[in-house]
Predict the structure.
Amino acid sequence: MLEKFNYDNKIVRNFAIATVIWGLVGMLVGLLVAMQLFKPEMNLGNQYTTFGRIRPLHTNAVIFAFVGNGIFMGVYYSLQRLLKARMFSDMLSSIHFWGWQLIIVSAALTLPLGLTTSHEYAELEWPIDIAITLIWVVFGINMFGTIIKRRERHMYVAIWFYIATFVTVAVLHIVNSFQLPISAFKSYYIYAGVQDALVQWWYGHNAVAFFLTTPYLGMMYYFLPKMAQRPVYSYKLSILHFWSLIFIYIWAGPHHLLYSSLPDWAQSLGVAFSIMLIAPSWGGMINGLLTLRGAWDKVREDTILKFMVVGITAYGMSTFEGPLLSLKQVNAIAHFTDWIVAHVHVGALGWNGFLTFAILYWLIPRIYRTEIFSKKLVAFHFWIGTLGILFYAIPMYLSGFLQGLMWKEFTPDGMLKYPNFLETTLQLLPMHIFRAIGGALYLTGVIVMTYNLIKTAKSGALLADEPAEAMALEPAFAPSSSEKTWHRALERKPMYFLVLSLIVILIGGMVEMMPTFMISSNIPTIASVKPYSPLELQGRDLYIREGCVNCHSQMVRPFRSETERYGEYSKAGEFVYDHPFLWGSKRTGPDLHREGGKYSNAWQYNHLMDPTTMSPGSIMPPYDWLGEQTLDTTTTVAKINAMRTLGVPYAPLYEQKANADLQKQAEEITANLAKDNIKVSSDKEIIAIIAYLQRLGTDIKVGNVSMQPSN
Amino acid sequence: MNILYFLIGCSVFLALIFLLAFFWAMKNGQNDDTYTPAVRILFDDEIPNENKK
């Protein structure tokens, strides 16, 4: 029976607008943070726009706001057409859209305020995490509902990529959001130290895989053939690509923690799977590029295809580089440097960015029933964008190699050639300037695109409900009586099956995790490692609030070049009370794990108030507000209690005298500062952060470590 | 390091979901035809003639 129905273009249009707006915002913030890396004054002189706080704003905005809305735009457009069905529910579509925008707005408000969990790409605090979960479920119901009422039995490969995205991101997000709230916008991760690190990078890696990669691969498999007007090179290869990719990707996470305190076998497992990943990734890239076989004349004419070619090539480059970076020898040099920044930006600017632009240019004229306003401006965008990527990536690669090698260079006498970290930083400033220029070029392209798309939309009219018709799907063949078991029936309904499995996993997972939280004996401990004092704990939370972890690692790797520079390498047992872990992933400044006792309190005070007084030329901004703001001690009791719940051995009823201890320690530091003629009241935030910095890494006395075996 | 076993458990669970989905896809005949789906998507969003301006 032929059925008439309408595709919902309005929701696609809404997501498209959100994609463009948040793209502009996210990239503008990106430019701002980039400029702070050679001109710290670009923090606009206040805490809310300082690097540590708005770097997470940049990453969240481009990943979840720009790319996120881009995904939903692409999925809502292609899913309806591939399944020959309108979206399951217009109301769910609408809730999904507005809910997601609200989440983004709340992120944009909370991150500059310093409300952050410090887990990279998962910085949002627990109430927003819950909102994300709910909206994600709405998206899932809407997608699976559409799949159920589809009029096309075969599910095109793109849909499989969308399903994998939904299922995996749901699990990742939930597992990496297990937090114990202590107030409306502050929580502690349940896991500590090395375990927390592993959860975070299991999440972090798979977020790249299933948020930045699989949905875009699905979109590539739909939009590229449509744009080129020819079928994908090999449909069989695309199916192979999908299944092999999702089975391998999930195991590669530990490659983010090479040479850290993570057990070696877990590191090796991560490396092995990372190397295997090159096969499906390149299979996909080749499949995309070969789709254009015999159509390269079209690529010459059609800028949209040019965007696709560069985007897919960038995918190939980053997925070649990924396995390369996961090799321990390469990682030893690249990790903590700008190399990683270059790597992710080839993926983000090239793959995600260019595919999004191509889809916008292709889709907007179609749903507005018009032609693109200016093809010349599209071409301009393509060239300035490509130039932007090159200006961004090449200096960052140079900067990465240079700094990684400088850190490791010894003189013939066996001394560090560049013992002063700042010396290596200053070498990179020209590259950082070029990088900002590259970013500015790229952003210029996006501004031109915005103008072009607005003009295009104005020249047409939105076809909100696009009429379509298709044959109704015949019911699946009737099962014979012997097959009518509940399991068979469930198997026939894959969508219910997936949703049910997900619930089962999560319940099972919780049960499985409980022992980890309840039994403390299975964590390798070092007898001399003690919980933080209340003042240090408050200081640590300020360290988190200011986003210090965005520039300073706390993980001395077991290389001579690092132990010479920083001190004894980091042991897993030193982090058992770290909720969350603060190992960091980038060293814009030096590692701080052995910072405690390295300098006097006065040095730390002066350095925080104005880093250039202690380290001339430093690109760290002044944190003078720490000297003005009063430490909030009303949270101490809740924090001590929460930590105890998580297994930190504070004595019973300790919370009652915690603030007295805090006061005492603060006064000691103030008195010590007074000896150096620094007058500061003991209730200021800076005292707490100094207390934390002076504690860092001092618990173990080298040569006097008594390790208790882990079980 | 119990968390390792939990994460491996999570990953295996995810892999199992996908494995079941894969079996379903094979059994359902989703992958029987590896040619026409690629071609069909090129034609499926034409607006019916009577609605064309």
